[in-house]
Amino acid sequence: RRHNLEEINILNDDATINELGGKYAGMDRYEARKAMVADLEELGLLVKVVPHNHSVGTHDRCGTTVEPMIKPQWFVKMDEMAKAAIKALDDGDLKFVPSRFDKTYLHWLENIRDWCISRQLWWGHRIPAYYCDECGEVVVAREMPEKCPKCGCTHLHQDEDTLDTWFSSALWPFSTLGWPEKTPELEYFYPTDVLVTGYDIIFFWVARMVMMGLEFGKDIPFKHVFIHGLVRDSQGRKMSKSLGNGIDPVEVIEKYGADTLRFMLITGNTPGNDMRFYWERVESARNFANKLWNASRFMLMNLEGFDKTFVPEASDYTLADKWILSRYAKTAISITENLEKFELGEAGRSLYDFIWNEFCDWYIELSKARLYDKENVRPRKVAQYVLGYVLEHTLRLLHPFMPFITEEIWQHIPHEGKSIMVADWPTGEEAKLDDASEVEMTTIMETIKAIRNMRAEVNAAPSKKTEVILHLSDESLTDVFAKNSGYLETLAS
Which among 478, 415, 398, 417 is positioned nearest to 444, based on CA atoms? Predict the structure, then answer.
């Protein structure tokens, strides 16, 4: 590709006219154009000068006009590598989440062209090609050859071009692990399980990593590719410097905390779809962190006499205890299932609802009477046990979403182990599932809410007790309300 290129380009690399330009040689391109127009006019060859609108390529940062120039380049032949990457998807070894992005991956690979991997840039991996200064022989090698293999000349120079950044990036899954040496890291971490990335670089990066992995690592670099969307501004626009609508994550973290930003982004995410950034949602996530912190403080304030060896009997549990343990078990099962399906947002929202609405707003309130009663020791121990069990296990579920606050709280409450980071992932514990207790407790909670609404309608003071007449639609509820009337007396006044 190097022959006769000198006869095609009339510009030097600094945008001045080369010797092919005759009398204009050495002039800046813009000055040369003015001089040519003046010469045409002097010779009587200029008919007229008119504005002409057309597309002119310009550099995106400095606005300089880009001049097309033919240069020698390095290419990679892609046909066979592309076939291997297509086969990995067809065989089910590689899976996209969501699966609709299979089309983006396949469309590019099925219509692939040879890849130009050389760039005329100063930064990047320099191409390991060496040229003999005498005969022009090209040698590709790891190190500079001592002499030319063709003519024996000892004067060689390295190609000044660098590799396309995506070529370097495509080597990342194994080159970072010591390849081509068979290191322990390479043995353990290659291939890995999941790549998380945006849809805008499926063919730039994902497909090329797969091709390079199959070619050099002899295996796909990852089994699942989880595609997330872009974070846009509140108007749905892509964040950019030119629009001035970018959000600096460091500023968000300094104001609201890293956990808050993480949780907001995860709960606002659905696989493959863009999301909008709203400050109100950041504040909501911050409020959630505060809610969790305050719930933990409540527990720590009520640990007097806590016995870590105490385990309640089945008969010790109140309806509220059985309800929260069942709700926790279902939440744990749901979160695990959603994470396995890469539904991170849904898993986060389930945790939010359970912690805020069920654990904090209901169970803590329902347990206060026993916690504050220091004369009845066993009921108090049962309440402490359930409160501690649910909080400690829920923190483990929340840890991947909010790692800092969960570790901080976990280290202060009763626990086993050095760090929540390496604690076992909690399972749903099927034995704690109790649909009957959930139905009964839900009925009582709905009743409490109904009474509160009635009191609010007539502006009843919180301290004023009122009489309530219950008309039960189901006789089986008679016994439920008779045994649990204390909840209504406490929470509904």
Answer: 478
Residue 3 has pLDDT above 60, yes or no: no
pLDDT of residue 6: 53
Q: What letter would DSSP give residue 238? A: B
Coil, strand or helix: which one is 223?
strand
| Residue listed under structure tokens 């995506």 | 166
Q: Which of 160, 135, 132, 159 is nearest to 146 (CA)?
A: 132
Amino acid at 425: W
115 forms beta bridges with 76
Contacts for 116 with CB less than 8 Å, ≥ 6 apart: 73, 74, 75, 164
Structure tokens at 122: 């100063």
Distance CA 325, CA 353 (A): 15
Mean pLDDT on 373-386: 94
Whether residue 188 is predicted with pLDDT greater than 50 in this model: the reply is: yes
Q: Give the E-state strand segments of 293-434 in sequence order.
A: none
| Angle between helix 403-412 and helix 377-398 axes, rounded to 10 deg | 150
* Cα-based angle 233, 237, 239 (whole degrees, multiple of 5): 65
